[in-house]
UniProtKB/TrEMBL annotation:
It comes from the Bacteria. The keyword Metal-binding does not apply. It is found in: Membrane. This is Phosphate transporter. Pfam families: PHO4. The chain crosses the membrane at residues 6-29, 41-60, 80-101, 113-132, 152-174, 186-207, 227-246, 253-271, 314-331, 460-480, 486-508. Keywords: Membrane, Phosphate transport, Transmembrane, Transmembrane helix, Transport. Belongs to the inorganic phosphate transporter (PiT) (TC 2.A.20) family. InterPro entries: Phos_transporter, PhoU-like_sf. One of its GO terms (cellular component) is membrane.
C-alpha cells in the first residue's frame, strides 16, 4: 500500500515539473511583456534579467506553501486517501488546463486555477462526506474555507476595473508630460520620474518580493514597517539625484527602470507564486511521510490529516531545483513567447496583424466610445485640443527597431503594476499579478491612442477574450477537478492510473499539435520588416514580395487540392476528400489574415503608387479567395457523393477528367513559375493556352449535358457531380488567368491603357 502511494507522490512531483514548465511559460507575460514590447534590450538579455529575478525569488520563497496544506480545505476532517485524491486531481487538472491556455497564447492566473481546483476537489468530497455522515454534525464550513473563493472572485473584478482605470489615467498624464518625442522633455522631469519609479520598484521588492525570505526576521520586518516612510523618502531623494546625474551622463534612464521593473516583478512572481506549482506536491509528500511515520497500521480511509494544519517547512533543495526548472522554462519555452506575443500585440502602438477578429460586444463598445469622443471634441476648447494633440503626435514617436511601444509606456506599465500589487497586498485584496500587469498594459495602450478606429474593435475583442478566459479558468478548474476527484474517489487506484495516463497523453498530444501549428503558421518576417520600415520605397518592395508569396502559395495549394479532390472522387477515397475540404477551409482563414496584412502595407506606400496598384492588388487577392470557393464547390459535392456510396464515375469520364486536369495543372505550374520568378515573357502564351482550355472544357460540358439526357437515370447523380466539376474547373481557369494579369501589373511598372486587350472590364472580371 505504501509503495503505491509513494508512486503517486513521485508522480505528483513529476507533474510539478510539468506545472513549473507550463506555469512559467504562462506567467512570463507578467514580467517580460513590457521589456520585450519596448525592445529595451535583446530577448536574451531580457530573459537573463528575468531569470535572475525568478531564481532569487524561488530560492528565497518560504512560508507561502500553507495555502495548499490548509488554505482551502480543513485537513483534520479528511483522511489520507481523500487528501491524495484531491491533490492528484488538482495536479492533473492544473497541468492540462495551463497547457491549453499556453497553446492558445492566452495569459491566465495560476493562482486562480490552483485555488479553484482545490475548491472543486474539496467541495465534491465535502458533499460526499456530509451525505455519508450519520451524526449530521458535519457542515460545509467544517470541510472547506469558502472565504478564500470569495476573496479570489472579488480580486478578479477589482484587478480588472482598478488596473484598467488607473493604467489609462497614469499613462495619459505621463504622455502629456513627456510626449511621444520624450527626449525633448527630459531636462528635469526625468530625475523626478526616475526617482518615483525606482523607489516604487524598490518598495515593491522589499514588501512583496522578499517578505517571506528566510533572512527576513520578524525584527527586520517590523523595523521596515515602522520606518517605511523614512526609508522611502530617503530613497526618493537619493534616486532622484542619481537618475538626473545618469541622464546628464547620456544614460537612458527609462531602460534602467524597465529592466529593474522586469527583475522586481520576476522576483515577486517566483517568491509568491511558487506555491501554485509545487505547493500541492509538497502537501502530498508531507501527507505521505506523516502516514508512513504515524499510521501504525491505520487504514488509509481513517487516518486523518491533522498534520497538515501546521505551517510548511519547505526543504531548501526543493526551492533550489524549482528555481533551476523555472529558469530553464523561461529560457527555452516557445509557448512563453507565444503568450508574451499576445499581450504585446494587443498593446502595440502601430497597426499590424491583428490576432483576434471582431465581436458584437467590441463593436458596441467602439461605437459608444466614438460617440463619447465626439461629444468631448465639441466641449473641449480648440486651443486645448491642439496642445493635447501635439503631445500625442505619433509622427514624432521614438521606437527601438521592431518595438511595439516606447520606453515611457513600458516604464509606466511596470512601475504601476508593482504599485497596484503592493496596494492590494496592504489592503488584504488578492490582486492577481497576471490580471494587473495585463490590464495595466491594455489601459496604457488605450491612453496612448494605440487603439485607432481601424484596430480598436480587434484589440477590444482580444482583451475581452483574455478576460473571459480568466473567468472560464475558474469555472473549468472547479468543475473538472471536482469531476476528476469524484471519479478517483470511487475508482481508487484504477481511476488514478487512468487519469495519470490521460494527463500524459494530453500533454504529449498538445505539444505535437502546437509544433505542427507553429510550423504551419511560421514567422512572417517580411510583414514585420514592412511594418517597421520608414522608407516607403522599401515598404513597396517588401509588399510586392509578400503579395508574390501569397499568390504563388495559393496557386500551388489550389493545384494540389484540385488533384486531391479529383483523385478522391475518382478513387472513392472519402478520407482524402475530407482532408482536402478541411485544408481548403484552413487556407481561406489564412488568406483573410494575409490580406489584412497586405492592406496595411498598401497604406504605407506612396499614395500615387497605392492608387495605381490598388485595383491589381484586390483583383489578385479576390482571385485567391475565389479559387478557394471554387475548390469548396468542387469538393463538397464530391465528398457527399462518395460518403453516400453512390455510383462511381465511369472509366471513360475518368480518363476525360484526368486529361483536363493534366492540362490545367501544367498551365497552373507555368503561372506559378512566372509569378514566383517575376518573369512574364510567357504570360501571353499562358493566357492563350488558358483560353483554349476553357473552350475545350466548354465543349466537354455540352457533350456531358447531351449524354445526361440519354443516360440511365441511375447514373444521374454521378453525372451531375461530374458536370459540376467541369463547370467549376472552367471557372477555375478564368480565375487564375485574372490572377496572372493582376500579378503582372502589380509587380511591374506597366499599366495597360484603355482599349488594350489586357485592360480588364466588368465583363472580363
Amino acid at each position: 500500500m505504501e509503495t503505491i502511494y509513494l508512486g503517486i507522490v513521485i508522480f505528483l512531483f513529476m507533474l510539478a515539473v510539468f506545472d513549473l514548465l507550463v506555469g512559467v511559460s504562462n506567467d512570463a507575460v507578467n514580467f517580460m511583456n513590457s521589456a520585450v514590447g519596448a525592445k529595451v534590450a535583446n530577448f536574451k538579455t531580457i530573459t537573463i534579467v528575468a531569470a535572475i529575478g525568478v531564481f532569487i525569488g524561488a530560492i528565497l520563497s518560504n512560508g507561502m506553501m500553507d495555502i495548499a496544506r490548509h488554505g482551502i480545505f480543513q485537513p483534520v476532517n479528511f483522511s489520507f486517501y481523500e487528501i491524495m485524491c484531491i491533490l492528484l486531481a488538482v495536479m492533473v487538472t492544473d497541468v492540462v488546463l495551463l497547457d491549453v491556455f499556453n497553446t492558445l497564447g492566452l495569459p491566465t492566473s495560476t493562482t486562480v486555477s490552483m485555488v479553484f481546483e482545490l475548491l472543486g476537489g474539496t467541495f465534491i468530497l465535502a458533499l460526499l462526506k456530509i451525505m455519508g455522515d450519520e451524526t449530521g454534525l458535519l457542515t460545509l464550513g467544517d470541510m472547506m474555507n469558502t472565504e478564500k473563493a470569495l476573496s479570489v472572485i472579488m480580486g478578479i473584478f477589482l484587478s480588472v476595473a482598478i488596473a484598467f482605470i488607473v493604467g489609462t489615467f497614469v499613462q495619459y498624464i505621463s504622455r502629456i508630460i513627456f510626449g511621444f518625442n520624450y527626449k525633448k522633455h527630459l531636462s528635469w522631469t526625468i530625475g523626478i520620474f526616475g526617482g518615483i519609479a525606482v523607489t516604487s520598484l524598490l518598495y515593491f521588492i522589499l514588501i512583496k518580493g522578499l517578505k517571506s525570505a528566510p533572512f527576513m526576521t520578524d525584527a527586520s520586518k517590523g523595523w521596515i514597517e515602522e520606518n517605511t516612510t523614512l526609508l522611502m523618502t530617503a530613497c526618493f531623494i537619493g534616486f532622484t539625484v542619481l537618475m538626473q546625474i545618469l541622464h546628464w551622463c547620456k544614460i537612458n534612464v527609462f531602460k534602467i527602470i524597465v529592466l529593474l521593473g522586469t527583475f522586481s516583478l520576476a522576483l515577486a512572481f517566483a517568491g509568491n507564486d511558487l506555491v501554485n506549482f509545487i505547493g500541492v506536491p509538497l502537501a502530498g509528500f508531507s501527507a505521505y511521510t506523516d502516514y508512513v511515520a504515524n499510521s501504525n497500521g491505520t487504514d488509509i480511509h481513517h487516518f486523518m490529516m491533522s498534520s497538515l494544519m501546521s505551517s510548511a517547512k519547505t526543504p531548501a533543495i526543493f526551492l533550489f531545483l524549482s528555481g533551476i526548472i523555472m529558469v530553464y522554462a523561461l529560457a527555452t519555452s516557445k509557448k512563453a513567447k507565444n503568450v508574451i506575443k499576445t499581450s504585446v500585440d494587443l498593446a502595440r502602438q502601430e497597426e499590424g496583424d491583428e490576432m483576434f477578429g471582431s465581436s458584437a460586444l467590441a463593436r458596441t463598445i467602439v461605437r459608444r466610445a466614438t460617440s463619447i469622443n465626439e461629444f468631448l471634441v465639441k466641449v473641449i476648447p480648440a486651443g486645448v485640443r491642439r496642445w493635447i494633440d501635439s503631445r500625442f503626435n505619433k509622427d514624432e514617436i521614438i521606437l527601438e527597431n521592431g518595438a511595439a511601444f516606447d520606453l515611457v509606456r513600458a516604464s509606466v506599465n511596470l512601475v504601476l503594476s508593482g504599485l497596484l500589487i503592493i496596494i492590494g497586498t496592504t489592503m488584504k485584496l488578492p490582486l492577481s499579478t497576471t490580471y494587473v500587469t495585463f490590464i495595466v498594459a491594455m489601459g496604457s495602450s488605450l491612453a496612448d491612442r494605440a487603439w485607432t478606429r481601424e484596430s480598436a474593435v480587434y484589440r477590444i475583442t482580444g482583451m475581452l477574450s483574455v478576460i473571459g478566459g480568466w473567468f472560464i479558468t475558474a469555472f473549468v478548474a472547479f468543475i473538472v477537478c471536482a469531476l476528476v476527484t469524484f471519479i478517483m474517489f470511487y475508482t481508487s487506484f484504477v481511476g488514478m492510473v487512468i487519469f495519470i495516463g490521460v494527463a500524459v497523453f494530453l500533454l504529449i498530444r498538445s505539444n505535437i499539435k502546437y509544433k505542427q501549428k507553429e510550423q504551419a503558421e511560421g514567422q512572417d518576417d517580411i510583414f514585420k520588416r514592412m511594418m517597421s520600415s520608414k522608407d516607403k520605397n522599401e515598404v513597396l518592395s517588401l509588399l510586392r514580395q509578400h503579395v508574390k508569396e501569397t499568390l504563388t502559395s495559393y496557386i500551388g495549394f489550389t493545384e494540389k487540392a484540385y488533384i486531391q479532390i479529383t483523385d478522391g472522387f475518382i478513387n472513392e477515397d472519402l478520407k482524402s476528400l475530407r482532408k482536402a475540404v478541411n485544408a481548403t477551409d484552413d487556407q481561406r482563414k489564412m488568406l483573410k489574415k494575409r490580406r489584412r496584412k497586405e492592406i496595411l502595407g498598401l497604406r504605407r506606400i506612396p499614395i500615387t503608387t497605392a492608387i495605381e496598384k490598388n485595383t491589381w492588388f484586390h483583383l489578385g487577392s479576390n482571385s485567391c479567395e475565389q479559387m478557394m470557393y471554387c475548390l469548396k464547390r468542387i469538393g463538397e459535392p464530391c465528398k457527399e457523393h462518395v460518403d453516400n456510396n453512390f455510383n462511381p464515375l465511369t472509366p471513360e469520364r475518368k480518363t476525360e477528367l484526368q486529361g483536363v486536369r493534366q492540362e490545367l495543372c501544367k498551365l497552373m505550374e507555368r503561372t506559378q513559375s512566372a509569378i514566383e520568378n517575376n518573369t512574364y515573357d510567357d504570360a501571353d502564351d499562358i493566357l492563350k493556352k488558358g483560353d483554349e482550355l476553357k473552350n475545350t472544357i466548354s465543349a466537354l460540358r455540352k457533350q456531358q449535358m447531351n449524354r445526361m439526357q440519354e443516360s440511365d437515370s441511375n447514373r444521374l447523380k454521378v453525372s451531375m457531380v461530374y458536370l459540376n466539376i467541369l463547370q467549376e474547373t472552367q471557372e477555375l481557369v478564368s480565375i487564375w488567368r485574372h490572377l496572372l494579369r493582376a500579378s503582372r501589373f502589380f509587380q511591374g511598372d506597366y499599366v495597360p491603357q484603355e482599349g488594350h486587350p489586357e485592360m480588364l472590364t466588368e465583363h472580363t472580371i
